[in-house]
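Input:
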Amino acid sequence: MMLRVDDLTLARGGVPVLTGLSLALVPGQALILRGPNGAGKTTLLRSIAGLQPPLSGRIEGAQDRVAYAAHADGLKAMLSVTENLAFWARIFGTSDITPALDAFDLHGLADRLAGTLSAGQKRRLGLARLLVTGRPLWVLDEPTISLDTGAVALFAAALRAHLARGGAALIATHIDLGIEAQVLDITPFRASAATRAGASDEAFL
Ligand SMILES: Nc1ncnc2c1ncn2[C@@H]1O[C@H](COP(=O)(O)OP(=O)(O)OP(=O)(O)O)[C@@H](O)[C@H]1O
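Output:
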């Protein structure tokens, strides 16, 4: 088992968003989260990434196995593409950034400052970071935003390779990635106002 989530209740800003949600992921599996805007997909991913604790329920198998790609790319604007990847490689204890440059076609941009990249180029670099983490559980929030058709295909290929290596992925996306994946619609797990709690849960916005 890669990840097990049991009977989670999650809140944002003290307001319950999801309740009674359970899911499991095994190595090699991708699970796509669906649900309308505001349903709680980001809230769920943030909790699994360890950025906010659940109000109740259990998350097993995440901790230091997660590589999280949020809406923001989290780039160091004054470092080059290569320096950004090398920085993360050092943080995560890996060394070879070449596969990440290859996978997201970044060689031509290797010496460019990240802050000077276009939105789609930044997103490619942000996603390339996943590969240098060496972590098995990718938790991805709308990973294809700003990507053109070719870059979406690069991402799908990187994801397929990750799954083939025994990795797993939990992905909130509104588009069809063209990969074999199960789909979980979180709409039935939306919390009602009756489960409102007062506890603050925002460690990071
Ligand atoms: N920082 C915050 N403080 C209070 N409420 C928040 C905060 N961030 C999000 N929310 C609310 O929490 C609920 C769930 O938001 P969340 O971002 O998890 O939804 P989502 O399914 O990812 O939506 P989208 O498809 O629009 O990205 C929404 O009602 C949203 O308005």
